[in-house]
């Protein structure tokens, strides 16, 4: 019995150290996403609610992100932000994330508080590696 | 034709050209028209505030008006809300900085159309009109009350006590002092929600433009039209002052000094966010009557950053000609001073850590006059 204890501990440690089975991103939902970006094997697709972003009104954004090119795996984390590079400011609000599925989240509380050119930023993390994709969006009064 | 006659003709021709230039009808292209139309129509729909269960209730509005004018809600019975928010001064006081018992650090905001705000106070430390109404009651420099003294004062004043019972179906003595104070703030808010500005000369012009009514368009002065063209064009004023109430309701640093004295700084929005987050009266707290928290999203998602330092709320511009002096510190006596500030924006003061939004407009004397003429029509 005494010999069995270290062996069990060792097997538990091996199990703990093994990488978790990675999930695929929900590609079946991609068709519902009107906007997409892809770069170097990382892709994001998204839709806003409401579909048309109105100046100074809150909106949410649902995002699907995939990494690892054709394998279409879910990233470990997604974050969304926005700013007006020409004005040198970001949003006055921090969106909150609701995870819907691996690689699929909705971010609530987005507000573009001024008219003009905004830059929407998606940060897609695979472990410690971050890939940033951006899209310019013009909001009118 | 001698030289004198030639010179005379030239002078006459120049004068004609000048007249032609100044009389040239002011027109707006399609983009300008869209921007102008986005400032209306006015008035806008204003549904009751879901966070305030007495918002829009006639008996609460009437009680709120009585309390607003009553010196019984100040510690020395020497002043009321109306002392600083004077109805015949667009509900402000005409002073650089307001004050009841003592002078405060900021200009008294006019109350017109306050209901449309997202944030209240120059620093946005409140997220509802009722929460903002608590601040002057408790501020030792303004009305100087506590929740306990307020409750006692109302309980001992029969007309105020009976009205309280009528609005809330409960004697004030059956409520704890803090709940009673919040209720008082909610009837004060219900009254302030009714302080709305009427249709302005600009609104009539805007509606005429929407209807392509040539007569109505022609009735709006050309100098105001030129000022409006600047406002939505080169001046870029409507980047912040947009929509029917001419504000985005958010916060910007426009290069005014932060110092209140040798050792005191007004933190502006930075301090306001911190106060809001720790306030028991914010929309995430127990006193919000809307259990769904449907209007609390902005508070929930609010972001505090170093750029908030020295930012102040963008005021709406309706009735602006009646609300001098201007800015959060009352440092600009006239509209001319305000326009001069933007015409000569201190770039060395701006663009350090914050926004790269303001650039000196370098307005001519005529352009300054036009912009002010437009502002006077709001």
What does this structure look like?
- The complex is a heterodimer of chains A (141) and B (378).
- Chain A has 141 residues and is mainly beta.
- Chain A has one domain (22-139): Domain of unknown function DUF4426 (Immunoglobulin-like, Sandwich).
- Chain A has one helix spanning 4-17, and strands spanning 35-39, 42-49, 58-66, 77-84, 89-90, 96-101, 104-111, 116-126, 129-139.
- In chain A, strands 1-2-3-7-6 form a five-stranded antiparallel β-sheet, with no helix packed on it.
- Chain A is globular.
- Residues 1-7 and 9-19 of chain A have low confidence and may be disordered.
- Chain B is mainly alpha-helical and 378 residues long.
- Chain B has two domains: 23-43 and 198-268 and 309-378, Cytochrome c-like domain (Cytochrome Bc1 Complex, Chain D, domain 2), CATH 1.10.760.10; 58-192, Orthogonal Bundle (Cytochrome Bc1 Complex, Chain D, domain 2).
- Chain B has 15 helices and four strands.
- Chain B has helices at 3-23, 30-37, 58-69, 81-84, 129-138, 147-155, 158-168, 177-192, 201-210, 214-218, 222-232, 269-278, 297-301, 335-343, 365-375; strands at residues 251-252, 259-261, 264-265, 312-313.
- In chain B, the strands form two sheets. In chain B, strands 1-4 form a two-stranded antiparallel sheet.
- At the A-B interface, strand 5 and strand 7 of A face helix 13 of B.
List the helices and strands and how they pair.
The complex is a heterodimer of chains A (141) and B (378).
Chain A: H1 4-17, E1 35-39, E2 42-49, E3 58-66, E4 77-84, E5 89-90, E6 96-101, E7 104-111, E8 116-126, E9 129-139
Antiparallel strand pairs in A: 1-2, 2-3, 3-7, 4-5, 4-8, 6-7, 8-9
Chain B: H1 3-23, H2 30-37, H3 58-69, H4 81-84, H5 129-138, H6 147-155, H7 158-168, H8 177-192, H9 201-210, H10 214-218, H11 222-232, E1 251-252, E2 259-261, E3 264-265, H12 269-278, H13 297-301, E4 312-313, H14 335-343, H15 365-375
Antiparallel strand pairs in B: 1-4, 2-3
Helix pairs in contact in B: 3-7, 3-8, 5-8, 6-8, 11-15, 14-15
